[in-house]
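Weekly puzzle thread! Below is a chain. First person to post its structure in token form gets bragging rights.
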Amino acid sequence: MTPPSQDLPFETRTQAYAALGALVADHGASLYCFSADYRAWPLNQPAFIQQLEQWALRDARRLDALRFLALDWSQVRGRFPRFAAFRRDFAHLVSCRQIAETGARGLVEMAGSPRCAVYAHTATWMSGETLQTAARVHALRMRFDEIWEQATPAFPAVILGL
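Winning reply:
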């Protein structure tokens, strides 16, 4: 008999990044992420971007399989050029949207897949929890999906100019 899954807290940013990496390495069918502005995420760390690329290459036929939701995308391209390149190269898999702060009320900094989720207690990712309890993962996903439907497309893969 398999023991029940346990939710695990983390207390450092290093542990948070390890939890995010483990989530991506889990190879779920989809990934969803929310942050106010992704400022404290490991989006410029080569190892994390490589994990995202490996996840994306596992099944390139999926559409809109990686969803990133933010309050503000204005600084992401300049702050995280590796992520911007990933966004461009995998535009067929990555969808980015933006929502007003009032629309995202109650949503925490988080990332999830069908089997597990990681969320932070604060925007700095200094503490939080890895969720493996199905009911909690499902509740977080439902909240994300509700807000996703209200959000507008943002952070295009390519900037068009004249």
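Puzzle host: Confirmed. Bonus trivia for everyone else. The chain has one domain: 8-153.
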